Amino acid sequence: MNAAKSFSSRLAGWLPRIVVAPSLLIVIVTVYLFILWTGVISFTSSKFVPVYDFAGLEQFIRLWATPRWHTAVANLFIFSALFLMLSTGIGLLMAILLDQNIRAEGFLRAVYLYPMALSFIVTGTAWKWIMNPGLGIQKVVNELGWTSFTFDWITDPKMAIYTVVIAGVWQSSGFAMAIFLAGLRGIDNSVIKAAQIEGASLPLIYRQIIIPMLRPAMLSVIVLLSYIAIKSFDLVLALTNGGPGSATELPSTFMFSATFRRNQMGVGAASAIMMLMTVAAIIIPYLYSELRERNNG
Amino acid sequence: MSTLEIDRVRKTYGNLEVLKEVSISIGTGDFLVLLGPSGCGKSTLLSMIAGLENISDGEVRIAGKVVNELSPKDRDIAMVFQSYALYPTMTVRQNIEFGMKIRGVPPAQRDKAARSAADLLQITHLLDRKPSQLSGGQRQRVAMGRAIVRQPKLFLFDEPLSNLDAKLRVDMRTEIKRLHARLGTTIVYVTHDQIEAMTLATRVAVMKGGVVQQLDDPQTVYDRPGNVYVAKFVGSPSMNIIPGRIEVEGTTATAIVDVANRPAARIPGIGLSSQAASTYANRKVLIGIRPELFSVGNGQAQGAISVDVDVVEPTGPDTLAVFQLGGVEVTARLPPKQVNARSSATLAVDTSKVVLFDQDSEELIN
Amino acid sequence: MANALSQQKPTVESISRQNRIRIGRLFIYGPLAVMAVLYLMPLWVMVVTSLKPLDEIYGGSFIGLPQTVTLDAWRSAWSQACIGTECTGLRPYFVNSLLMVIPAVVLSTGIGAINGYILTKWRFPGANFVFGLLLFGCFLPYQAILIPMARTLGLLGLAGSIPGLVFVHVAYGICFTTLFFRNYFVSLPDELTKAAMVDGAGFFRIFWSVILPTSIPIIVVSCIWQFTQIWNDFLFGVSFTSGGNSPITVALNNIVNVTTGRKQYNVDMAAAMIAAIPTLLVYIVAGRYFVRGLTAGAVKG
């Protein structure tokens, strides 16, 4: 009787761990073990299917000797930098404007944010059509009378990456806006009143007091947008399919085509590991600080 | 029979010792208040009695039965929480009946029990409302109703009044007292409010740093605090602790306290045990005088002291006079309009209730 | 006092102040309106293009209203357009996406709810570490697991199948849903669970009778987030399925990238709209919850 009771109470003590275990197992396998697995493949000479020999750093050397990869990395820098700056800037501006006690705020907020509900494939498809040099914006402006206007970035290898930036910013700046707006709403109004009483003008209050107070939101925006930028894949595929040529190749599209189209699984794995390391370098410190602050708070 | 014995109970988290060998035992029908500042371990102790926290060492016995290994539901207790912890999606009735439902009490019986508890607490008209539609005081009543229907051996209250505003707190305090008188169940009640402890308890355990400083009935705690900490924690304004020294004659002591710019004040007629009298003769001690022991005296009477009143704070029924005595700030509770700020006054002291503390250990001298 | 002061100096200053405010308002509403137009433009273009006959598209302006409104493009996109060699339209792929998204959303939300419950109300040593492990999964660049997942699905006999996709989405969705529920349950007072324990309720009873009924908002957030993510997913769909088992995003991309013959832009746009409508509908109906999902991982508190 007593033993049975203590067994059942011991079971009750373990129950939470038992229930959470399957999820944990799935995540350990599909996240951490799989990362390890990809890491292993990146050190083999795998091509079409994985082979488990040891090829040392061969795949990494080959990766960094591939001009296409260089294009991809360079593009990632251009794309991320512009995408981050524009999305953050526009998002912050819109959040501040929306926070001025305006009418129709709910409607406007919904308008700025709806692109986030769309698939990048839909976004890419729509912008591909809009930026179509024969029939899109260029034609509209030409017909309005400005006949020398050209907007053919999407077919221009030098400019095509900027079309990805445009579509990306259109899709994601509303997201930045939403986070900034949440941050602004969290700021104690009395701070602003105090500054007003001291005679500070509104722009000054924003520059000196409010925007600095948005630092946590800013950090979140930058980290999350960087993550979106690095994993951007569908947008490029739908908008330019990596082209013209390989002009809009990104690490994500490079990895995919190396692995599934060009039978260079080893190179694909190596590029995936490079991506992972980039993301981890940004995300892990961020998560660490978020978790620590949450525990303190 | 519903006694509670806490026998050398300890609580540790790793190396951190939250409770250090706490022993308290109370009888059937007692109202025990665990009183202390936040972090003193009182809530942890209550959770351990409830079975919500493990007991690291020692024993808890309810009605003579060791409950260390029992889960909360098997301990025959009911608990009222600080945030009331009403289930937000259930109506008042469902809240009250939830525990009975789990124990498989048939609906008719549940309904009857819920009704009689609601009648007792005057919340019958609220039975079909959700907690979000209730005021703070009403929620408090529902939480008590939920506890009452269990008919437990032991009621546990965890700071139940601290979320209420001042007026309501006083009303609910009376309500709890009335409930205790009516049901006669043993209660353990945690609070940091010394007035709640004084008004409600039959036994008060004053705690600090995981140690019970004093366990006594409230009047004793008030009149003869076991140490300086208890003396200062219980009572508002708190007891004046004045450094001085005593001269002893038989078992009667005269306290001598320095007064700035005046001859030293002599407070005669403090009773002492003969042992204490021989130990402390002509030694430095701490003299404990409650503010209300002062009265406005006349200059001729023996033991009258002259002071320069610094500030007066009228509270309505009384006026608090603040002055320097023995190098510390001292507060006296006097009738209104008897003394003025920044003027001198002559005060008498009711020496029968003056207490003395050891200067080093700060323990009460008997 | 303050009142007296402000009444002393009337008219001139207060009028100019009002004007200033009005001009200031212009600077607020102006940019907001321009941005709103820019944000709505692509949707507008998609809709009007999808309603035009092909001749009008090649002849007229792409931004103007259609002269003749026709649903032919929608019909074609839904049931005739060619995806690869199969000319079935998007309909079967739309069904695929539904078959994938419904079980994946239900499973991942349910598992996330119970995980969040455990990680907040039944904390065990190492619970924080477990949470950290799950949290990193939210930020995993999926390229890093594509190859092993493809192999594993093959081993499990799930390669190229919809159940396989459901598994993938549940596995990585758990990370997000656990985060949602954990952050929500953290704000529920622990005393609620304690009270239920004193009342005699056990682990599952507390979850079912006390915690879940209070969690409707976060359940909605989680479902919407998962629905949007899984419906819009392309990477897993294109990597792990082929042909008739593809989800709608993959099929859409195939339609758009067909290069033979005269490009049917109206069909492309209709197809894009068909792929977008479910998530747009959810967004319109429950936008508030969608925003909460977006910001859940970002701003503290």
From TrEMBL, chain A:
Q: Which InterPro entries match?
A: ABC_transporter_permease, MetI-like, MetI-like_sf
Q: State the family named in the UniProt similarity comment for this chain.
A: Belongs to the binding-protein-dependent transport system permease family.
This protein's membrane topology, according to the annotation, is: Multi-pass membrane protein
Gene3D superfamilies xrefs: MetI-like
User: What are the entry keywords?
Assistant: Cell membrane, Membrane, Plasmid, Transmembrane, Transmembrane helix, Transport
Swiss-Prot/TrEMBL GO biological process terms:
transmembrane transport
Primary location recorded for the protein, binned into one broad class:
membrane
Cell location? Cell membrane
A GO-annotated cellular component = plasma membrane
- The answer to keyword Nucleotide-binding applying to this record is no
Per its record, how is this protein called by name?
Answer: Sugar ABC transporter permease
- Transmembrane stretches in the record are 20-43, 76-98, 110-130, 159-184, 205-230, 265-288
TrEMBL record, chain B:
Q: Which controlled-vocabulary keywords does the entry list?
A: ATP-binding, Nucleotide-binding, Plasmid, Transport
Q: Reply yes or no: does the keyword Nucleotide-binding apply.
A: yes
Q: Please name the Gene3D superfamilies in this protein's record.
A: 2.40.50.100, Nucleic acid-binding proteins (2.40.50.140), P-loop containing nucleotide triphosphate hydrolases (3.40.50.300)
Q: Does the keyword Disulfide bond apply?
A: no
- InterPro entries this protein is in? AAA+_ATPase (IPR003593), ABC_transporter-like_ATP-bd (IPR003439), ABC_transporter-like_CS (IPR017871), ABC_transpr_MalK-like (IPR015855), ABC_transpr_MalK/UgpC-like (IPR047641), Mo/tungstate-bd_C_term_dom (IPR008995), NA-bd_OB-fold (IPR012340), OB_MalK-like (IPR040582)
Q: Kindly give the membrane topology term recorded for this protein.
A: Peripheral membrane protein
GO cellular component annotations, sorted alphabetically? ATP-binding cassette (ABC) transporter complex, substrate-binding subunit-containing
One Gene Ontology biological process: carbohydrate transport
Per the annotation, which location comes first and is thus the protein's main one? membrane
Recorded hits in NCBIfam families, A to Z, give: PRK11650.1 (NF008653)
Question: Could you tell me what this protein is called?
Answer: Sugar ABC transporter ATP-binding protein
Q: Tell me the organism's taxonomic lineage.
A: Bacteria, Pseudomonadati, Pseudomonadota, Alphaproteobacteria, Hyphomicrobiales
